[in-house]
User: Fold this.
Amino acid sequence: MSQPVTEQPFRLTSLAHGGGCGCKLAPSVLQELLAGAPAAQPYAQLLVGTETGDDAAVWDLDGETCIVATTDFFMPVVDDPDHFGRIAATNAISDVYAMGGTPIMALAILGMPLGKVDTGIVRKILEGGSAACAAAGIPVAGGHSIDSVEPIYGLAVIGTVRKALVRRNADARPGDALILTKAVGVGVYSAAFKKEALSSDAYDEMIASTTLLNKVGSALAKDSAVHAMTDVTGFGVIGHALEVARGSKLAVTIEADRVPLMAHAEALVRQGFVTGASIRNWASYGAEARLPADFPEWRRHLLTDPQTSGGLLVSCAPEEADRLVEEIQAAGYPNARRIGAVAEGPIGLTVA
Assistant:
């Protein structure tokens, strides 16, 4: 095994209490905050709002073309400023792809502790974000910056999608198969990274995954066999699959052995590298998830592991699932796997 990533003279992550999508509020807290949000009914053109915790808002412009709007930002998950910028931007753009849309432009969101981070580092963060946007074929058309206690970076992203191609997280159908397009373990890797216990090859694997754009979402939306999509980020596989179950009012089953894992994820989680967000996730939604009586805690941690810039969770016609997996893999997502199914039954999630 290669040597751990060496400590940098200055660690960007040392300025943040958490990093990446592990910074997200716990699902239970978010539900409580949104419980009193005004209903979207007065706005007939708002096709997707806050009702199902979907990835982005969707506004019907003219009955055919829709605007997709989202924002996402967080604190550093790595120390390299260019990598941090690329990861944060890739993660934000993913929300548009998860709705079946195509991004058209982005606005930068930047908060930096003045006097603690020099302008050269900030410039590299912005350059990394711009590079990810360029890979998506969009400009960073503006933004806003503030002096903040901790470093924060992300994007507001605008995209478009044909109304018929909008893919919500709440449109899964009984009998559907579930596909996950990226391997799981980013939170475990980031926990090891913070303690300087992540090998260089594992770090490279993490960067490759978190900077891989979910462009395939735009293509999948054009396939009639694909019924619903969402991206797997801070709430982990179980959390985001539960959102599909709740929104679709169906029962979801995840086959744990089928969930793709990053190469060192099992070894690291068995060594105790777990994020606080993983624990908060389970505390928030564990009552809605049924696990086998003998299910090991380390495996549960992988299913609740917060994924920064994770893959897409795709609900599709079962007879087309194998074809779709092959097409997703051929499009540049080699870890794509069929991981579960959707059925009639009590709303919730079962791990098999």
